[in-house]
Amino acid sequence: MSGVILVYLGIYAAEAVGIPIAPLVAGLGVGGLAIALAIRPTLENIIGGLTLFADRPVRVGDFCRYGDQIGTVEQIGLRSTRIRSLERTIVTVPNADFSQMQLDNFAARDQRLLKTVLGLRYETTPEQLRYVLAELRKMLLGHPMVMPAPARVRFVGYGAYSLDIEIFAYLRCQDQDTFLGIQEDIFLRIADIVTEGGSGFAFPSQTHYHARDTGIDAERAREAEAKVEGWREQDRLPFPEFDPRLRREMENSLDYPQKGAYNYRKR
Question: What pTM was computed for the model?
Answer without folding.
Answer: 0.70
